[in-house]
Backbone:
């Protein structure tokens, strides 16, 4: 990272390019993490300061705002990754990765504002005296004693931390409420509809916990599947998943579980508001014991 | 009797047990073995009563030789009886676990034949899980009162957490309502578990440091730690006349002397009819709620039991939470300045919790906190503003720092939901238009805050983001199998999906040469 590396220092001088009446600029990226980092790269390399970085479907140009599409470039994204790690430490990059999974229409801008602040605040590490130099491959592994993530009330950091936290909350819900089914062929299948694209964040968890079973987690809201076949997991973008028939044993287990669920509740403590608070209704259609509680129209799970 | 019927009977018999936590131990997954645990615990479902379901909570059997007055399973009750065979129960646990329904097993039991025989059945179940299935998930086992210490020892090495029920908060109540159990019977296994945990911990610490000389004697197979997640207990509140003062003193001494991880309270629910039990169906759920709040103050807020409750006022205020009550009794310590106050003092401010206090500590190192900043930090500012100053300015004006004024601001009834037995209740002090006409009024005034501390339920924070910005899809999975020789997912039938590579692959793979 040479030419673009020092870009963190230029933040203060970032200017707009004067296109459009009010000199405002919006970047459109493809919604992926790589696309977002490419947009950040362009902003630094061309000394631009876009006030919006959005996905195409969220684009609403302001009055006189120039719009520019930023092509996704994996090489540039990797350079930005190195720059973030070198300036702010790997944990900040991990946070950027997670926050960018959010469905918030503003997430691109939020991450960009945060990165501007973070890169300006921390100067790049000097690698000359670093012992890890030979091994790190350009991705710095040293943490800052005072992370920018601790500047909780800074206007650039606060929305970022909130988005990051929301993504992790959603991840936790999926860890709680994901339900696997055994299907023919010795495979386990689970479907979910989270509010953020959290499948990349949960695969490590399930792949280690259930390392004895091949499984697939399908996120129907983001059309993304995480697949584990016994070694490494990987992600597949897909429209349609053809799932084989459930095994006969599966139906018995589901019935047993539903019966257990009905029985365990204490009638004299009945409190459905509390339950709904902990287990949001939007997730019920993929929670096996809750499907019966839904109105008939929404209970159709998926066409087999 | 088929398995599902049996499960229903034995679940129904176990549901009054309160403890259903999977917390206290981190155990990573191992290749080739099923399961892991995480110290915070994970709730996998929530029943219609709002209580979390994290473990498969069942009895080994609901046959019982005892005749405890308050218990559903007392031998004089005429109910259906059943028992799990150890293998049956182990299979069911594994089946549920692999579907991500549960974190593990909560195994309790009625006393069949003798306490020792019952414990042997439980040990066999856990042995199948741990040894045959290599199960690394969470197991909570209940010690049967009267079982021999050796068997309790074996059980403890297989379980993660153990508990012995106190049942009732005093010896007298125990004599009246659970005539076959005595205080000594209950405390003896608790002491044994505590001592064994301490001993096991010491031994392990020494082994780890290598301070012994006999390396050859190290066992080839690693032995399982004894009850690594600690022990807990539960007691019934409201079946006997003990005061909150008595109950909280007892639980504080249990934390101190027996190193318990949790003391659970269970509002007495009438399931049996007996002259010795309290009449009517007044369930003291609100009282249970306040006791849990006080319990949280003991465990997470560094409160001493004497600060929470005194013998002069032996019951907790039903209209005011115990922390606000303490603050009102100690107004001379307030207001505190959020930019300088120590952590212990921030914890004592009503409206600031453990998370809020920690965030304040982090945030104030780089910025001065004023009202706007405090509001962003997960603090209930509406309550906290009477007790804090932000950079010198006090926002609780208009009420005055007096006991009566603040009490009116902070008093809040416990929200018990809009259904069930806690619903029909008007807020105190609120006028009703229709009261004189004799019409039901209270349903109008149902909504409000949800209880802050639901027992044994992990709070999940609010999610963010809207449901838009779905990614357009590229790949398509057809019905055909990809024959890649792996078996497994080949049969699930994917075709040419585009693999999303890039930054989500393992870090090692993105490193450039």
Residues:
């Amino acid at each position: 990272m040479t030419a673009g590396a020092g870009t963190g220092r230029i933040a203060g001088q970032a200017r707009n390019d004067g296109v459009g009446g009010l000199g405002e600029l919006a970047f459109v990226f493809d919604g992926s993490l790589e696309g977002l980092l490419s947009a950040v790269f362009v902003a630094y390399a061309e000394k631009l300061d876009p006030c919006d970085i959005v996905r195409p479907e969220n684009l609403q140009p302001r009055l006189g705002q120039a719009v520019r599409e930023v092509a996704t470039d994996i090489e540039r994204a990797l350079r930005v990754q190195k720059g973030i790690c070198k300036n702010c430490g790997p944990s900040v990059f991990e946070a950027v990765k997670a926050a960018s999974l959010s469905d918030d229409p503003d997430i691109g801008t939020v991450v960009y504002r945060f990165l501007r602040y973070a890169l300006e605040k921390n100067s790049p590490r000097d690698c000359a005296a670093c012992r890890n130099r030979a091994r790190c491959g350009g991705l710095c592994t040293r943490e800052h004693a005072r992370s920018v993530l601790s500047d909780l009330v800074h206007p650039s950091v606060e929305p970022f931390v909130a988005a990051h936290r929301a993504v992790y909350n959603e991840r936790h819900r999926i860890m709680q409420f994901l339900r696997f089914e055994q299907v023919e062929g010795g495979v386990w299948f689970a479907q979910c509809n989270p509010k953020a694209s959290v499948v990349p964040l949960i695969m490590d968890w399930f792949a280690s916990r259930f390392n004895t079973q091949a499984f697939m987690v399908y996120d129907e809201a983001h059309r993304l599947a995480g697949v584990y076949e016994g070694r490494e997991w990987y992600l597949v973008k897909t429209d349609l998943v053809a799932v084989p028939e459930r095994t006969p044993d599966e139906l018995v287990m589901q019935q047993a579980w539903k019966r257990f669920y009905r029985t365990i509740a204490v009638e004299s403590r009945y409190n459905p508001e509390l339950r709904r608070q902990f287990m949001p209704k939007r997730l019920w259609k993929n929670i096996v014991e809750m499907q019966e509680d839904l109105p008939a129209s929404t209970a159709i799970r998926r066409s087999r | 009797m088929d398995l599902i019927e049996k499960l229903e009977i034995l679940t129904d018999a176990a549901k009054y047990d309160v403890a259903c936590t999977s917390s206290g131990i981190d155990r990573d997954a191992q290749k080739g073995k099923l399961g892991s645990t995480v110290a915070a615990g994970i709730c996998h479902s929530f029943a219609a009563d709002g209580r979390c379901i994290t473990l498969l909570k069942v009895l080994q059997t609901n046959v019982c030789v005892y005749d405890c007055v308050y218990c559903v399973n007392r031998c004089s009750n005429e109910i259906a009886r059943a028992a799990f065979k150890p293998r049956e129960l182990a299979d069911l646990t594994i089946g549920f676990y692999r579907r991500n329904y549960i974190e593990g097993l909560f195994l309790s039991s009625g006393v069949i034949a003798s306490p020792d025989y019952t414990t042997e059945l439980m040990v066999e179940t856990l042995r199948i899980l741990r040894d045959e299935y290599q199960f690394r998930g969470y197991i909570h086992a209940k010690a049967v009162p009267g079982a021999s210490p050796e068997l309790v020892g074996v059980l403890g090495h297989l379980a993660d957490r153990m508990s012995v029920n106190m049942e009732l908060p005093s010896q007298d109540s125990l004599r009246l309502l659970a005539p076959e159990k005595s205080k000594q019977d209950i405390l003896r296994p608790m002491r044994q578990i505590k001592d064994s945990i301490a001993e096991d911990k010491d031994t392990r610490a020494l082994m780890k440091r290598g301070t012994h000389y006999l390396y050859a004697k190290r066992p080839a197979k690693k032995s399982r730690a004894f009850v690594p997640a600690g022990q807990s207990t539960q007691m019934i509140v409201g079946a006997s006349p003990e005061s909150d003062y008595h109950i909280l003193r007892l639980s504080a001494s249990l934390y101190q002397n027996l190193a318990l991880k949790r003391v659970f309270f269970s509002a007495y629910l009438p399931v049996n009819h007996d002259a010795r039990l309290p009449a009517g169906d007044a369930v003291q759920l609100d009282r249970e709620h306040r006791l849990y709040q006080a319990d949280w103050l003991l465990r997470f807020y560094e409160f001493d039991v004497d600060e929470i409750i005194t013998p002069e006022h032996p019951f907790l205020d039903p209209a005011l939470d115990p922390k606000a009550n303490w603050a009102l009794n100690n107004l001379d310590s307030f207001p505190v300045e959020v930019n300088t106050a120590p952590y212990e003092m921030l914890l004592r401010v009503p409206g600031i919790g453990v998370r809020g206090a920690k965030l304040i500590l982090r945030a104030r190192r780089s910025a001065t906190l004023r009202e706007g900043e405090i509001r962003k930090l997960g603090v209930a500012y509406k309550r906290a503003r009477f007790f804090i100053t932000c950079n010198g300015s006090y926002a609780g004006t208009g009420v005055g720092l007096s006991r009566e004024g603040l009490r009116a601001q902070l008093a809040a009834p416990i929200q018990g939901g809009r259904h069930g037995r806690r619903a029909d209740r008007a807020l105190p002090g609120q006028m009703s238009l229709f009261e004189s006409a004799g019409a039901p009024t209270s349903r109008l005034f149902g909504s409000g805050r949800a209880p802050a501390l639901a027992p044994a339920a992990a709070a999940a924070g609010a999610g963010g983001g809207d449901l838009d910005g779905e990614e357009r899809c590229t790949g398509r999975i057809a019905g055909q199998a990809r024959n890649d020789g792996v078996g497994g997912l080949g049969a699930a039938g994917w075709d040419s999906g585009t693999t999303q590579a890039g930054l989500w692959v393992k870090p090692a793979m993105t490193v450039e040469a």
Chain A has a mean pLDDT of 87. Chain A touches chain B through 115 residues (CB under 8 Å). Strands of chain A lie at 25-28, 52-54, 66-69, 180-183, 187-192, 214-219, 224-228, 233-237. The first strand of chain A starts at residue 25 and ends at 28.
